[in-house]
Amino acid sequence: MRRDFWRSAGQHLLEIDPQGWLRVTPGFLAAYWTRPEVHPIETSCAREVALHEALLADPFRPVAEPELEALADPDAADSYRAVLAFRSVLLEAETIEGAYLRIVQRGAVTIPPVFIDQMVHLILRNLLSETQDPIRLRAAEVFFRDQTVSTEGGTLMFADEEIVQMHAKAGAESGLAQLLAESGTPLKSVSLDVLDEASKSFYWERSDRFDTVVDFRFEQPAPDAFARVIEGWLWHLLKIEVKVEPRPSLEDADWRWHIGLDIEATLILNDLYDGKAPSLDRMERIAGLFRMRILDDRLVIDRVKGRPIYLGLAMTEARRIKMKPQNLLTNLPLLPRAS
What we know:
Blueprint: E1 15-16, E2 22-23, H1 26-32, H2 46-57, H3 65-69, H4 74-93, H5 96-106, H6 113-127, H7 134-140, E3 147-150, E4 157-160, H8 161-170, E5 193-194, E6 212-215, H9 221-238, E7 242-247, E8 257-260, H10 263-273, H11 280-283, E9 286-294, E10 309-314, E11 320-321, H12 327-330
Parallel strand pairs: 5-6, 8-10
Antiparallel strand pairs: 1-2, 3-4, 3-11, 4-6, 7-9, 9-10
Helix pairs in contact: 4-5, 7-9
C-alpha cells in the first residue's frame, strides 16, 4: 500500500510531467506569495498590499522594477526580488527538477538557501513516492535538513538540528540521555524517538515533524538506506545508474576520485587524497563513508573508468552536518557529453 508522507513538501500543488518530474503550477507559485517574507504586515504600504493581492490573483503576473522601487519598505522590496528571481528560474525550467539542475550546474542566479532546501525536499518526495521503508525516508532527510550528531555511548545518532534546538529551548525531558550534550549545544534534555527496524512504523504518522533519531553507524540500516537515496537521486536527475555501498574505511592504493557531501568531508577527503594526515579529532568527524561505481563506463573520464568513487559525510567541530546534495551532481567524473 502506498503511504503518504512529507505533505509539507508541497508536492500536491504540482503536476507530474511525462518524464516523472514535477511541473510548476499556479497553485505552487501562489504558495510562495503567502510566505512571511513577502506577506504584508500591519505597517505595509498600500502599494505593497496591492502588489501582493495582484500576485495572489495571478502568480505569473510580471513585476517591473519600478513597482518594487515604489514600495515604502526597501527590505520588503528585496524580499520580492528574491522570490521573483526564484520564480523566473522555475518558469524558465518549467519543472522543479529542471530548475534545481539549472541553479546548481550553472550558478547563474543566487537563490536563498531555504528555497534550495525546499526544492531538494520536493525532489526527494517525488523520487521516493513509492518507498515503503521509513528508514530510507529518514536517511533522505539528511539531504535537506541540517543534522546534529551525538556519539554518546558509542553510537552515531543523527537528530534534526531545528528540532533539537526547539526541544532544548523548551527544556523538554530527555528519553535519550541528554542527546548531544557533548556537542556544545546548551541542551538540558531532549526527548526524541529512535527510529529502528523494530519501531519504524510510527514514522508515517509524524513524517512532517522531523523529530526522529537514527543511528548512522556502519552496518546499521541507515547508511545503507542513505546509499539507496543517493542512487535514486542520480538516476532521477541525471539518468545515471550507480551502485553505492557504505564502507567502514577508505583503503585504496589506487584512489582516483572522491566527492565530499559537505564542506567538512570535502576538506578531509582532499587531505587524505593528497597524502596528508588529518588530526585524530578531524578524522573522528567522519560520519559516513561510501564507495560508488558508475555502472556505464562510457560516461566516465578515462582515469576513473573501472574505478570506484569515494563519498564522505562529516560533521563540523560543533557536531553539525550540512549536506550539499548538489555535490553529487556537479563533481562526478563524467565526460563532457554526459554532464
